[in-house]
Amino acid sequence: MGDKPRLTRDQIAQRAAQELTDGAFVNLGWGIPNLIADYLPKGVTVYFHSENGILGMGRRARAGEEDYDLVDAMKVPVTLIPGASFFHQADAHLMTRGGHLDVAVLGGFQVSEKGDLANWKIPGAKGSGNIGGAMDIATGSKNIIVCMEHNTKDGGAKIVHKCSYPLTAIECVNTIVTDLAVIDVKKDGLVLREVAPGWTAKEVQQCTEAKLGVSGQVPEMKLG
Amino acid sequence: MKQKVFSSLDAAVADIPDGARIMFGGFGGAGFPNNLIQALSRKGVKNITAISNNCGTREGELGIMFQNGQVSHVIASFPGPHSNYFQERFANKEVTCELVPQGILCERMRAAAAGLLGFYTSVGVGTEVANGKEERVIDGKRCILEKPIHADFALIKAQKADELGNLTYRLAARNFNPIMAMAARTTIVEVDEIVSVGAIEPENVITPAIFVHRIVQAKGVRFAG
Predict the structure, then answer these.
(1) Does ipTM come in above 0.90?
(2) For B9-103+150-216, which CATH superfamily applies?
(3) Which pLDDT score, from 0 to 100, does residue A124 have?
(4) Which of these, A165, B8, B80, B141, is most buried using a 10 Å CB contact count?
(5) B24 DSSP β-pair partners
(6) A40 exposed, middle or buried (CB, 10 Å; 0-12, 13-18, 19+)?
């Protein structure tokens, strides 16, 4: 099982992109989520939100086209799509906390069986740490999708009973998309919705500390 | 009309004392009052509390203030991957830091601006941000009490000011600037262009003049990376 192929980071993004519906207002976090914009299903227009005060971000700016007053939350020069708007940072986070965004897709270090999220600090890491917008976004958005690798580099579980890393927000995650599975967080626990191609529900459970609920045959993810 | 336009950056920050609490606008390289920060650094103020989303890009933006050891306390959300000089001082315990979730940083400043004494929020519940804060349950939801963040001065960047102090911003360089303008007792703005009163259409004003006390024109500076 150790050498069975898992999804790439781009494929995780591709699968997560399928969760976005036409016209949705969506915030993408650092890491894998930032790759999602490249994989929107055909015919789907999404209004990307950036916590520095933009709705309606388009693709990244091409060489020569960059305007450094028009950057995303990762400091990367971007473009706008028709219908875009600007506002100040307080309104940007009013949108995140106040439940106005349809979906936020965040990176994660750990997710617990209750949907607690840890994604801002590694225990023992040097320095001050950086919270940024993560806590506001994780607490307030209507639908939180976490994209991450299913296991740590040394094979440890990241979907756990209880997070050991510093928490970002409690009971906030709705769906987890990993390189092995799509998992929904329900009131009575985690439910395995899909497995990566070639993987079985039993194998995914063996890579997961938290208990995964399974009903019947779990279908494989379909990637483009 | 009260004269708000200053002829030099140094004159605009001349009375900022040691120990001042100062807000600094800017996010992601955009909307930083870099000329005013440089002037404040030249003036040599010490022991300031800096309230800012981040803590500099190497020596750029707020970085120079940490490089020179002018800051003793920071209230920030995302010090940043290139805040080398801050991190160095922080590791040496020469600077203390309160980390605040970004939207809560905004709202705490806005509470100060609005004359509110605090607010309850679910953001931070169950995390280290909640340490030492009053927690209660409202309508079945756990929440913590957050208090306002006041400042003596705000140094901000806008695109255009009229001589009365009405401001417009360019693209996403707006970010924290309008909030800090409202929250501080004295707001000092650097702008690319100063125009006469009435030259900005009232419906295009983003920060009304009531929040702006000093205006200085300076060519915008951006620090790469």
Answers:
(1) yes
(2) Glutaconate Coenzyme A-transferase (3.40.1080.10)
(3) 86
(4) B80
(5) B52, B155
(6) middle
